[in-house]
Design brief:
There is one protein chain. The protein is an alpha+beta fold and 185 residues long. Among the domains are: 87 residues, Jelly Rolls (Sandwich), CATH 2.60.120; 35 residues. It has five helices and six strands; from the N terminus they run H-E-E-E-E-E-H-E-H-H-H. The longest helix has 36 residues. The protein is globular. 12% of the residues are buried.
Length: 185
């Protein structure tokens, strides 16, 4: 009788575990569908490996969200092109041109087969109205990028770049435009 109870308990646990796995898969699929539905009203573009998404100095204003694949960001310098970053699934690229209405500051190319959701300037505001958490997610990612950039600057300082050079870079980027009219302490 004890063996029968143990096998019954094992069967119950196994059935519960199997149901739990199927519920987990169902919830996971629901979340993926919801993620896709978040951008149901937006244009989606596919790019092949190495295909240019936008080029530095372009005047277009679209922002892109990486749905699959990756996007490599590079910048031209007199000494050649340098690698800036790789943007992966769920992250965005092109927000600077959209938010500031300025020409593109870098070049973006697809890495592998890449699918991007396109947000137009007016579409971004509509997206934020429909899904306010989207704005918060963008702010979090932008904050993370600033934190990473700061870390890289301070690492450069430790490698011997002068503190004055780092200070000029930081003062010239993060806070200048918002504090132009503010009195200096």
């Amino acid at each position: 009788m004890l063996t029968s109870k143990r096998s019954g308990a094992k069967s119950l646990v196994k059935n519960g575990f199997d149901r739990g796995k199927s519920i987990y898969r169902w919830i996971g699929n629901l979340i993926l569908k919801n993620e896709d539905n978040r951008f149901a009203h937006e244009l989606v573009l596919d790019f092949d490996d190495g295909e240019t998404i936008f080029t530095e100095a372009d005047e277009d204003r679209e922002m892109y969200i990486v749905q699959s694949g990756e996007v490599k960001i590079t910048k031209r310098f007199p000494s050649g092109e340098i690698y800036i970053a790789t943007i992966t699934r769920g992250d965005f690229v092109g927000e600077m041109a959209l938010l500031e209405s300025l020409p593109r500051s870098a070049t973006a190319k697809a890495v592998g087969k890449t699918r991007l959701v396109v947000l137009q300037p007016g579409g971004l505001l509509l997206k934020i109205r429909r899904d306010p958490t989207f704005a918060f997610e963008m702010l979090q990612r932008l904050s993370h990028r600033i934190r990473d950039t700061n870390e890289q600057l301070f690492n450069a300082l430790q490698r011997g770049i002068s503190a004055d050079a780092i200070q000029q870079i930081v003062q010239g980027s993060e806070f200048t435009s918002s504090q132009v009219s503010a009195p200096k302490p």
